[in-house]
Amino acid sequence: MPEKILVVDDEISLLETLAYNLQKQGYEVETAGDGLNALTLAQSAHPDLIVLDLMLPGMDGFEVCRELRKTMNTPVLILTARDDEIDRVVGLEVGADDYLTKPFSMREFLARVKALLRRVRMIREELTSAAQQTGSTLAPGNSLIYGSLVIDLSRHEVRLRDQALALKPKEYELLVYFAQHQGVVLSRDLILENVWGWDFTGDSRTVDVHMRWLREKIEEDPSNPTRLITVRGAGYRFEG
């Protein structure tokens, strides 16, 4: 089944060009010319990737991304004609996964798309393997189930008691990484390297902050966690 991409841009010629080239690569493509239609399509079509222009009529790309992140963790590639660093920073802070400044070559665009989709596939494959190794429940549609907590790999989202959680991209990646290593004690340095990347310039406190945020969303009592366990002097362990 081909991967599905939602492309959002109010410049019709560019929208058609991107859609055409993505379809040539074998992807299924949905398109939208404004933010409101983009949100509706994203929620109904459940794309594997969203390509989102920042300068949209009515609701801009920043606001679209904020709304998407309330219920979905689908990877978002932002497109913009502006090259200001503040725009890139804000874009990433509201939940974008990558950023491409116009004008760009079609080769670079397709490479970014392939890289983001490859990352999604790897996460799904690793989680499926982890489920088989740990005996976790893998439901139809590629969902990992830990009691009332469900990691839906197809939709790239997490639900608790049937309610979608508004996880930031790094929170989702962090939870996925723990699910891949259920029952294993993971050090802060190991988490930083595998979730943030070897070139991350921050320190281990970043892990602690994100763990606190994640616990507030998935734990019944964040002050007494039962899923994300602190192992004093060693790191953290996911019990599912």
TrEMBL record:
Residues 106-133 form a coiled coil. Signal peptide: none annotated. GO terms for biological process: regulation of DNA-templated transcription. The keyword Transcription applies. Residues 141-240 form the OmpR/PhoB-type domain. Keywords: Coiled coil, DNA-binding, Phosphoprotein, Transcription, Transcription regulation, Two-component regulatory system. GO terms for cellular component: cytosol; protein-DNA complex. Residues 4-117 form the Response regulatory domain. CDD domains: trans_reg_C. Residues 141-240 bind DNA. This is Response regulators consisting of a CheY-like receiver domain and a winged-helix DNA-binding domain.
